[in-house]
Amino acid sequence: MSTHSTKENIQDFFYSVSGILFAGFALKSFLVPNHFLDGGVTGGALLIHETYHIPITMLVILCNVPFIIMGGYLIGRSFAIRTLLAVIGLALVLTFVPYPVITSDKLLVSIFGGVFLGLGIGLGMRGGCAIDGIEVLALYTLKRSGFTISEIILGINVILFLIAAIGLGMVTALYAMLTYFIATRSIDYVVEGLEEYIGVTIISKNHEDIKKAVVMQMGKGITVYKGERGFMKDSFEISHPTDIIYTIMTRFEVRHLRNLVLEYDPNAFIFTNIIKEAAGGVLLKRKGDH
Hints:
By secondary structure, the chain is an alpha+beta fold.
């Protein structure tokens, strides 16, 4: 086994264990003692626990087993084994780790229960496993329908929250929605990082000056596409060759780029799109770069 693979496996193990501990903390210190719910498979387990009083430890395993099997077919055997070990690890943590009950304030429970559960699930995803199996279910449904993964997850949770509203009351369902929303945002921050990357496309008649400014002043790598600009309604036959500039940066740098471009061309066409994941290339200007 290479040194790089060993390092990756150790890192994945650290992420997974950290995720299990955070998820256990969220469940035992916030959600379970206060009879709270969440979305996803974890929310389903909590709903069954509140309705039938079956131990949450057993439900965490039983509710995730079908999705572990499904994940083995859809994603791979390694993913299924990691997820099974993570779920068993979460059950052991819930059984043996003496987490304290932090608060009974409903708003604090909803907010911080969601934050720590999201951290746990997100760290598990970084470690290559799924502590909550709803993403696997969404992937399975995606292959058999025209809906996106986000739409499928939303639909599943709407059904879950409706059941909660009918069985446990509207207030419980509303707090469950808040917990789920906060957990989802926490997962996004953990998986995608606080520095969200933005793709920027620039079309301008002064493309040569703008290319030089983006690379030399901001230290950004660029990609150039050959295109044409013009094609207006009143002069459709008139067009001009142009370089279409594309670059990626953090959201904190977009305003600086926009101001820089407008210095060279106040009429430049600039549009952005969110990049879910980026690696390699020149993304961040390192200290000492000039």
